[in-house]
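FORM 7B - TANDEM STRUCTURE REPORT

SECTION 1: FIRST PROTEIN
SEQUENCE AND TOKENS:
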Amino acid sequence: MTNTQAQSHPRRFLFLLASSRAQGNTEQLARVAAQSLPAEVEQQWINLHDYDMPDFVDQRHAGDGQYPVPQGAMRELLDATLAATDLVIVTPLYWYSLPAAAKKYLDHWSGWMRVPGYDFKEKMRGRRMWNITVTADEDQSYAQALVDSLRLTAGYMDMPWNGSLIGYGNRPGEVMQDESALERATNYFVGV
């Protein structure tokens, strides 16, 4: 991408917060990482708990298999997702996987891919996916299933996977004592 192209198409980072705790450890680590983004990079922060997301209903094999255009909160999430060049899934580790809000959001991608005229999967191709996670265990290998889930999702959507930034924090604010995670956070978006 040339400098002229970069100026006419600024990067837009969408941070999707999935923790059930406001300003929790994972969000704190994400905000440290986001401080290193260049000033011209747009940032949008969405707490998925602020959106009324219905359970996803799989209707791929019913009728024509198409889904209606989402309305209300789901339309806002779809539009924000399509407006982003980079998606950052900001999620603590819950029971070795994604919290329900993050999983429900990703489940709706199955429907969005089948909304006539949206070409969701084609439009997502080439957008970058990132992950910031905090675990309540110092052994970060426990987060592997969560990381694999997001990495495989990115691969399926033909989105470059930019890896996971994983920190440790059990009690509120404890991630801010994880010096290794904080150092990695300041370099996580280097080169953007």
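SECTION 2: SECOND PROTEIN
SEQUENCE AND TOKENS:
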Amino acid sequence: MSLTPTDVPAMPDAALVELVLGLPDLGRRPFPVEDLPSLARLSPVALAERAELALQAATRLAAAFELGRRLHAARMRRPRRLRRPRDVARFFHPTLAPLVHEEVWLAALDAHDRVRGARMVCRGGLLGGSMRAADVLRAAIELGAVAFVLAHNHPSGDPAPSDDDVELTHEIEHAAHLIGVPLHDHVIVTPAGRFTSVLRPGSSRQAAPLP
């Protein structure tokens, strides 16, 4: 099939998937194109099982999804300064929202709340990944933080912090205060854009969606 650049935007989802995978017979068998947002959140192994694809083909499709996510993140207006819970949520939403597992990320800030760097500090949630306050502080110091913020995701869609979220956050906050690199906020984000601040519950108790 000969395609021109103008053909691609007009192609239906199934044809685009077929083009990415190089599978000319894809249109002759069921493919769950209506579930693309859900499929995009899966690992290659889970994607292969869900879409009934060979692992190599599923890996190629997962790579295409990841490129799309990175393009979206690059185009999205991220705040240069993280001063409010909403700023933190907007900054980390492109990274955390698509995930089906929990990750904890840190953003190192300078004296004007500008981001110096960001790093994942734990995969599997605060407790599921056995994260320690020392691990967080080490990352903050390595990134040259004057202060820092944390963010993690709740794939379930409920942004409310658990008791464990609150307890470990206050433990990190106390340790950060002792070494003079304060924790300014810890924000929980969800796939739909709802968020909550663990340290400032009054400012985001409504779990407002991002614009």
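SECTION 3: OBSERVATIONS ON SECOND PROTEIN
DSSP finds eight helices and five strands in the chain.
The mean pLDDT is 82.

SECTION 4: SIGNATURE
Preparer initials: ____
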